[in-house]
Automatic annotation (TrEMBL):
InterPro entries the record matches: Acyl_CoA_acyltransferase, Bact_Acetyltransf, GNAT_dom
Record bears the keyword Magnesium: no
Database matches in Pfam families: Acetyltransf_1 (PF00583)
Domain of life, per lineage: Bacteria
Record domain N-acetyltransferase: where: 1-161
Protein name, as recorded: N-acetyltransferase domain-containing protein
GO MF term (any one): acyltransferase activity, transferring groups other than amino-acyl groups
Length: 161
């Protein structure tokens, strides 16, 4: 397993991973499979271009046998680093892939002088919350309503980079 930054050539595989992710964990993200499919591949390639070219963000991918098996987006939020789009494909879960991605995020953050990693996770996503706690994240106490799944709340978690 190797962790690296995404390349523009990863576009087709990233699109496959995104559709898989939205089907596998429909409540975990601020997007839905229907919306992603309606926007289409062209719009997603535009997003990928942003991830690989914009200086304030990058997308780390986990690669096994040249297949992308997970990703984590990191964004400069001016003062802290925001983590988004955490996903690991089911076949390699429970093997520490998330740790590899978070370690890469922490290095990226420290290199830029930002000492804090912050994320939001759906309150009922217990497996993800446990995985983040195992990596040293703790709840800040802040909770926000999910933008369109209104009964659901998102929990904010933080850890030092
Ligand atoms: C949450 C997620 C990113 C964790 O990634 P991961 O690389 O599997 O993380 P870990 O290796 O630390 O495993 C986390 C836990 O998954 C569970 N797990 C183990 N094997 C598993 C498997 N085959 N399938 C599902 N879960 C498994 C275990 O409870 C494990 O905890 P443990 O090590 O204490 O036993 C991944 O499960 C995932 O992508 N889930 C769906 C999307 C999601 O919820 N993303 C978070 C958005 S905020």
């Amino acid at each position: 397993m190797r962790i690296r930054q995404a390349h523009i050539d990863d576009g087709p595989q990233l699109w496959g991973l995104r559709l898989e992710m939205l089907a596998d964990a429909p409540l975990a993200y601020l997007d839905t499979l229907d919306r992603a499919v309606a926007r289409g591949l062209g719009e997603y390639h535009h997003r990928v271009r942003g991830w690989v070219t914009e200086p304030d963000r990058t997308l780390f991918v986990a690669v096994r046998d040249s297949a992308l098996v997970g990703h984590l987006g990191v964004v400069d939020e001016r003062g802290y680093t925001g983590l988004v789009m955490a996903y690991v494909t089911p076949a390699v879960r429970g093997q520490g892939v998330l740790k590899g991605l978070v370690d890469a995020a922490a290095e990226w953050s420290k290199d830029a002088g930002r000492r804090e990693l912050l994320l939001e996770v759906m309150e009922r996503n217990h497996r993800a919350i446990r995985a983040y706690e195992k990596l040293g994240f703790t709840a800040t106490g802040n909770r926000h309503p999910h933008p369109y799944l209104t009964p659901f709340m998102e929990l904010e978690m933080v850890r030092p980079a």
